[in-house]
Amino acid sequence: MEDHTSIQKAQSASTADTLMKDLQSLGVRQGDVLIVHSSLRSIGWVAGGEDTVIQALMESVSSSGTIVMPAQTSDNTDPKYWKNPPVPEEWWPSIRYFMPAYLPDITSTLGMGRIAEAFRTFPEVKRSGHPSCSFTAWGKHASFITDHHSVDFAFGEQSPLARLYELDAAALFIGTDYRSCTAMHLGEYRANDGRKAFKQGSAMMENGERVWRVYWELEETSERFNEIGQAFEQEIPVATGSLAQSACKLIPIRPLVDFTARYFNGLSKQQSD
């Protein structure tokens, strides 16, 4: 016999149907292209957990739409940049030598959350080839978004972010904020603010062999993303709502990327005056 707590939990649980109704109220429609940033914990108790959330997202946009999620593997990077925690310099050569190669079908995400990690394992989900900054995608435009992801400048013009910009996609925050909004990195890349490029490295497969590949990346300043997002919302309307207990936002990517680039350009001009 079920106890009283279990019955109460079942009665208050979110289901795929209730989540789909919430997404529809937020403004999600069939055919939409969404990059999703999510916190499962923020949603509350869901019957079926992260799998149910993913299924609700897929059903909401349908096969005519597309769901995208970041699938980053930031542990597969040059150890000389590691800070949380740092490792002794004498370890660096061994880490570069023994780090397993990035394998799109196998390599787990790091720090992306349970929804993003489960999403990469779903049938027909495709994953881009960048060894540390990959993206996963499902739906109509999945291949267009994930194919030809340049190793150099992972968030630049030859990235899934630029393809999302072309498709006039939206970013969906589920219990997250602008600090996790990967699309804003495209705005950083497009800003003419004098930021520096640097050499990064990762283990990956090339011509059937595991190699340590050195490539170019651009300095990032994501600690300003919430500040930029707040300024953006004063100019551009953003849809707000909830997914069960989670506060949500639905944000058009094109104006956000453009605003981000202008914002960084303005900061650069202020510093040079």
UniProtKB/TrEMBL annotation:
It comes from Bacillus badius. This is Aminoglycoside N(3)-acetyltransferase. Its EC number is 2.3.1.-. It catalyses: a 2-deoxystreptamine antibiotic + acetyl-CoA = an N(3)-acetyl-2-deoxystreptamine antibiotic + CoA + H(+). Keywords: Acyltransferase, Antibiotic resistance, Transferase. It comes from the Bacteria. The keyword Acyltransferase applies. The keyword Nucleotide-binding does not apply. Belongs to the antibiotic N-acetyltransferase family.
